[in-house]
TrEMBL record:
Source taxonomy: Bacteria, Pseudomonadati, Bacteroidota, Flavobacteriia, Flavobacteriales
Organism field: Arenibacter certesii
Protein name in the entry: Uncharacterized protein
Length: 65
């Protein structure tokens, strides 16, 4: 779970969440994504970014207002 303040939803926080999600994706699916990107001749960074954004929807957020 990720704890956020309502006033903490600025650009810096969004970048921090995406970076955290990207690390999670690398740990869970890094090898599979790398194999897919190599096989289909696509950018690994682009694939990681897309999966990181999808991964954000699996997080549970708690907002303190």
């Amino acid at each position: 779970m990720i704890y956020l303040n309502f006033t903490d939803l600025n650009e810096e926080t969004q970048e921090r969440l995406i970076a955290s999600s990207k690390e999670d994706v690398k740990e869970k699916y890094g090898k599979d994504i790398m194999n897919y990107a190599t096989k289909h001749n696509t950018s690994l960074d682009k694939m990681l970014d897309e999966e990181a954004l999808r991964n954000l929807y699996s997080y549970k957020y708690i907002f303190n207002i």
